[in-house]
Amino acid sequence: MVKFYAACVIKYNGVLYSTVKKTLAKTILRNRFLICSLLGIIPSCLSAQNIFSYTYQNVTRNNGGGTLEQGDIIEVRALVKVEVNTSNFYYVDTIRTGTQFVSGSLKIITNEGLTFRGPYTDASGDDNGIYISSGQPRLRVNLGVGTSFATTAGFGLNTGGGTVTSGTDKPKFYGKTLFVVAYRLLVTANFDDIINLTGNFYYDSVKSGTTYKKNFRFNYAGIKVIQNKGLCSNFSSSTFTAESDFGTGTIQNRALGATVPGYTKINLGASAPGDGYYSIANNTSGNGTTDDTGPYKPNPARVFAVWDILGDHTGSTDPIAGNPPAAAGSNGGYMLVVNSAYPTGEVYRDTIKDVCPNTYYEFSAWIRNICSRCSIDSNGISPNTPGVQPNLAFTINDVDYFTSGNIPYDPRGWVKRGFIYKTGASETSFRITIKNNAPGGGGNDWVLDDIKLATCYPNLIMNPGDTAKVCAGSMVHLRDTVRSYFNNYVNYCWEKSINGGVTWLGTGVCGTKVPILKNGLWEYVVDTLLNAAAADSGNFYRLKVATTPANLLDSKCSVNNSQKVFLKVYNVNCTVLEPEFLSFNGQLINERSSLKWQYTGDEYTSFFEVERSNDGTNFYKIGSKNYLPSKTQDYTFTDAKPDESIVYYRLKLVGNNLEEFKYSKIVILHNKNNSFKISTVNPFQSIVSVNVSLPESGDVELNLCDVYGKIVGKKTLSLNAGNSVVKFENVGAIAPGMYVIRAKFKNTILQNKIFKFN
Asked: In sequence order, what are the residues at sequence separation of 6 or more whose Cβ sits closer than 8 angstroms to the Cβ of residue 145?
C-alpha cells in the first residue's frame, strides 16, 4: 500500500523512504500524480496534499514557439496548489550555469501568468524577495501572510516564511489557494549545451505536536540549446510514431488508450475529462452532437458547457479549420483530448526505432485550444476569458528541445508546432515526449493530432528528365541537381536497372560533393559520362544520395527519388553526320557572347542546337539554327544572357531522323570584367557589414533574411564599380542564430551565411 503524508514522506510496504531510500523517495514524490492516477485514487490521494509543479516558458519565442537559443529569455515558474494550510512557507532557488538572472523579475503570479505580487527588488530587507549575485547566484522569496522581509543575513535560515490558509488566502482557485513563484533568466549557454534548473519549496508541518521542516525539491531534466531551423520544406510522408493520427472509428470515444503518462483515460461527457484526465474522440461534444453554434453558456452539449465542438485534423482540406465533428455512428478521425493537470508533465510518449544516423527529422504536431471561457481570477471567479493557454514542450530522450509557445484561443482553429532534430553519428533510436508546459488549470484544455516524425528529404532533379539518346560508341552525359533544406546529403552513387526499373544495381560511380547555398536551399550538381554500347540500350539510370557512406547501403536511409532516365542507343546510321567545321569561335561584344561558325554539310543534317555551360561539363540548350543547304555556309548566334566570368559553348548537329547527332569542339569565353562578389564580417552582434565588389556601376539589392526566408533588413543602393561597404545597423535586437545575406546585381544573385551572437 502507498501512503502520502502531508509532510511529503512516503511509506511503501512499511518502509519509510524519506530516510531509507532517499533517491527512490524523490522519484516517487516527483511522480506522485502518476502513482495516484495508476491507483485510480486521484481525488483522495491528493486532497490532503499540497501540489507542486515546476516549468519554464521561452518568453522570447512565446509567439509561435521555437527552440532555445543564446540570448533568449525564459521565465521559470514554480507552482503550488495549497490543499493543506501551510506555515513558515518560502521558496529558494539557485541560478544554474548557462543562465543569468534578469534583475527585478522575481514575482508572484497567477497560474494564468498575471502578476499578483511584485516584482520584488533584488535588494536585501525591503520586500519579500531577494537576489544575491555574489558567489553562487541564488534567490529567495518569503510566501504567505505574516512574512518577514527577505535579507542577506536571513537567506539560509529556516525562518521568515508566512502562512498560507487554503481557500482563504488569494489567489483563490476552486476553494483552494494556487499561485506561482516566477523569475526570468537570460540564456548565456552555447549551442548544444544543456541547461538544468532546480528549485525548493520549504514549509513547516506539525505532526503529533512536533514541527518538521519539509522540502519539496525540483530537478528539471534539462533544456537543450539549439539553433532554430524551422520545419522541413520537403519531407517523407511516412511517420515513425505509434499514434500519429490516432486512427478512425464510428463510435465517439475510442476504446483503446494511448501512452499518456500521469493521466487517466475517460470518455467525454458533460463534465469529463476533468483535470488530469484525457479522452480519445472523434467529436469533442459532451453528448455526441455536431452543433457548434452558440450561445456558449449554458449549453449542455458542450463539455463544461463551454468547450468547442469539433472534429480531428487528419486529412482535412482546410488544415486550419480541421474536420467537422463526426456524427453519431459515422466514421471519423480520432484525436487526443487533454484537460491538463495542475502539475506539468508528460501527455504523450513514444520510442522511435530504426531511424537513420546523421539525418534531419521533423518532429511536429497540430494543436488546438478548445476553451474560450475557462479562466479563474484571483478571487476564484470566472471572467469568461480563455484562461491558462496551452504551452507544450517537445523532448528528445527526456531533454527539452522545443516549446510551442502559448496557444491562444482562436476560433479559426488548429496550429502546427514543431522543430528539426538531427540524429547523431550512430543514433538509430530515441524517445520523444510531448509535455504540458503550462502549470495549473482554469483553461489549458486542448486537442492534439497528427504527431509526425518525418524525414527531411532533398529534391533530386535529373537532366535529361526522361530519355537520353546516343549513338553506340559515343559518350552520354547524365546530370542530377540535388537541392536540400539542409547541407548533409553529400554522398551519392549512380545506379542502373536492366529490368525496367524493378531492381537497381550500383554502377560503382560514387563520391561526395560540397553543396552551396542558392536561394535558401543547399545545392550541388552530380554528373557522369557513360560510354554507351549497343547492349546498354533500354537500361535505366538514377542517382541515390545519403548523409553518410554507410547510409547509401541502407534503403531506408538513402534517397533515390530522382526521375529515372531511359537510355536509347542507336547502332545504325550513326556515322552519317561527319562534322566538317571550317571554323567555330566566339567573342564578347557589349558583354554578350557572339558565336560564329562555318560548316560544310550534307543532306543528312537537319539543324544545330547551341548549348551553354557554366562549368564545362553540364551543358544545356539555349537556342537553335536551321541547316541551310550549301557547300559552305556562315552561321551566327548571340547569347542574350549576361556572361559569367567563364562560359562554355558547343554545337550539337542533329540528323534528319532527329535521332542521330554529333558535337562540335568547345569554345571558352572569358569575361574579365565580371567580378560581382560579396563578403561579410562573420559573426556579427549589432551591425552587419557587407563588402560588395562590382564590375561596373549599378543598383544592388541587399536583403538580410532569417532561416525561414523572412526579410529582417533590406537596402537598395546605387554603387560605383569596384569595392563598397554596406552596413545594416540597429540589428542588435534581432534573435541570435543563423541569417542569410542575399545580394542581387542585374541577373546575378549571391548569398552568404552569417551568424548573430550576443
From this structure: 162, 163, 164, 165, 169
**pTM of the complete model:** 0.68
CA 376, 379, 383, 387 dihedral sign is negative
Residue 30's φ and ψ, nearest 5 degrees, are: -65, -20
Place of cell 518569503: 142
Instruction: Find out whether 675 and 746 touch, Cβ atoms under 8 Å.
Output: no
pLDDT bucket at 115, cuts 50 / 70 / 90: very high
Neighbours of 529 (CB within 10 A): 11
Side chain identity at residue 630, one-letter code: S
Cα separations (Å) of 624 from 81, 574, 650, 667?
80, 21, 12, 16
Would you place residue 655 in the very low, low, confident or very high pLDDT band (cuts 50, 70, 90)?
confident
- The dihedral built from the CA positions of residue 379, 380, 385 and 386, taken in this order, carries a sign that is positive
* Range name among 301-315, 516-530, 577-591 with the lowest pLDDT average: 577-591
Among the listed residues 580, 506, 581, 518, the one whose alpha carbon sits nearest the alpha carbon of residue 544: 506
User: How many CB atoms are closer than 10 A to CB 181?
Assistant: 26
Alpha helices of 54-213 — where are they, by DSSP H?
none
The Cα 41–Cα 203 span in angstroms is 25
C-alpha cell at 189: 549557454
Edge-to-edge order in the sheet of strand 633-639:
581-589, 592-599, 633-639
The pLDDT of residue 27 is 32
Are 649 and 666 contacting, i.e. CB atoms less than 8 angstroms apart?
A: yes
The whole-number pLDDT of residue 207 equals 66
pLDDT, residue 44, reads 31
Of the listed ranges 86-90, 183-187, 272-276, 718-722, the one predicted with least confidence: 718-722
The answer to whether residues 265 and 298 touch, using CB atoms and an 8 Å cutoff, is: no
pLDDT tens, residue by residue, 560-605: 877 788 887 766 545 434 455 567 888 877 777 889 888 776 666 7
Q: How far is CA 533 from the centre of its chain?
A: 48
Task: Supply the DSSP symbol for 59.
Answer: G
Cα(477)–Cα(529) distance, integer angstroms = 5
**Chain position carrying cell 552569417:** 754
Which value, in Å, is the radius of gyration of the alpha carbons in the chain?
A: 34
Instruction: Output phi, psi for 675, to 5 deg.
Output: -145, 40
Q: Environment class of residue 161 by beta-carbon count within 10 Å: exposed (0-12), middle (13-18) or buried (19+)?
A: buried
**pLDDT-based confidence at 233, cuts 50/70/90?**
low
pLDDT above 90 as % of the chain: 38
DSSP symbol at 534:
G
